[in-house]
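2 proteins. here.
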Amino acid sequence: MTLVVGLGNPTQAYATTRHNIGFMVIDALIADQPTTSISKPQFKGELYKTSQILFLKPLTYMNLSGESVRAVCDYFKPENVVVIHDDLDLELGVVRFKTGGGHGGHNGLKSVDQHIGSEYFRVRLGIGKPVSKDAVVSHVLQPFRQEEHACLKKVIEHAKNAITALQNSSPAEVTAAFTCKKGMCAS
């Protein structure tokens, strides 16, 4: 079984923010196939399943995401963990993948690393970087601009297709087939 985690923050206040792109992909995945909700308070998140995959949206807020991931891993013992997250170092439209590595200052990844280690497959979705380092928090917590919505829709669909491909392909094969280094939304 594979656990696919989308990082984000709960509540409507954060639903359309850049930091919630992981939640957006999970929402697209569960809308696209028959899933069953198996959420329980002990999982600290919304958990859905198909016969082969668990989909998790931690409800602990970003900085404590690892608590939810750990609870689900302890209960279900998945063979593979995939984490979908926003990446400041990539422009919107860029999609990259990697297994393991550092958290790059991303508090959600830092929390996941603390709870399950860092050797999981990552789906890195670019959200762009603010001009000033002082503006990082406000940048990740702001909604996507109207003119970015068409690109965002492409990114979510692309990430959804990559996750779906993981059911029959290795992480290396998915990386080769779905990496978008230059971005899919360049004008």
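next one coming up
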Amino acid sequence: MRTADRTYVDPRALRRLYVHDDLSRAFCAWRARLGGALPITLHGRAELVNSIALAVFRHDITDEAGSGALADLAADLAEGRLHLAPLPWRRAWDDAAELSRTHTPKLGTRTLDVLHVSSALVLGCRAFVTYDGRQTALAEAVGLKVVRP
């Protein structure tokens, strides 16, 4: 059985809880079924906040919707639906460099995508949620179960 604390969600996927698109309904339903606290790193939180702010900048959502999304994110952290996972950053970056050396020549993965997969591994996660093809290939190559709600 999959549990939230063993599931790493790429911030671009997690964004669907806060900035709605055509995949948000299914993602929100999956999240509700999973329950528990999902881990998020400091980097993941920064990426998610920036993604919401970019949605405002690009006029994908209003200023008001952006403020609401950021408030919802803060509430999810405060109420335990997300938790800031203590990540040993040196290990995550070292592992990311090794994953890049080993897999990027074949898969073409980007640095931040590799860092998220490395973070999932360092945190002991077993499942990885992403909609990105190259990130999916890397996650599967290192033994993570990829989920696309």
